[in-house]
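[09:14] KT: can someone run the structure on this one? pasting the chain below
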Amino acid sequence: MKVRCEIDVDPVTLELYELEVTPPRDDFELEVKRAEQAVRTGEVGPTDRARDLYRRFGLDPTRVRPSSEALLRRMKKGESLPRINSLVDVANALSVQLQVPVGLYDLDKVKGEELVIRLGAEGESYAGIGKEKVNVAGRICVADAEGPIGNPSADSARTMITTDTERAAWIYFLPVRDDDVDRTAELVAVFGRGLIRVI
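[09:31] RB: done, structure tokens below
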């Protein structure tokens, strides 16, 4: 799988393979508590990086929030980290702690041989996870050969991660440190039973 950027962004993209995604795991509670503690103490990454990314492309990050900030706001209100499945849970925990939006895409549901990070064309949208329609006209999006499948605010239902997912693309929409990539690999290995390679 290739990932190509048509716009001026600097994502970190990972290919995950040999995955064994399970329903939410009880032994992930330690990571949930780590994320909750980071939110409580303010030891999360700066929210201004994702906001600046949105503003750079003419988007108001207070109207359509980056997924990382939406999770942070939810947790600051006392709500728990959403539990979806073992891989999405890892992505959410890291996203809230790093304050970097994460896109996750099931590669066996992706059409074509590459993902393209670009601006959405006029009229482009997709069915979001738990949402009827996500409009991406003029917004940063990730697209396959059939069209947009995600953005830094919401991923699509068509390529969402399930317990049947064996291969996935993981996109950090902002640069992260090598230590963060190592931590991602460690958590994916433990909770997704998978391997990663940087692409």
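[09:33] KT: thanks! The first helix runs from residue 29 to 41.
[09:34] RB: yep, looked fine to me
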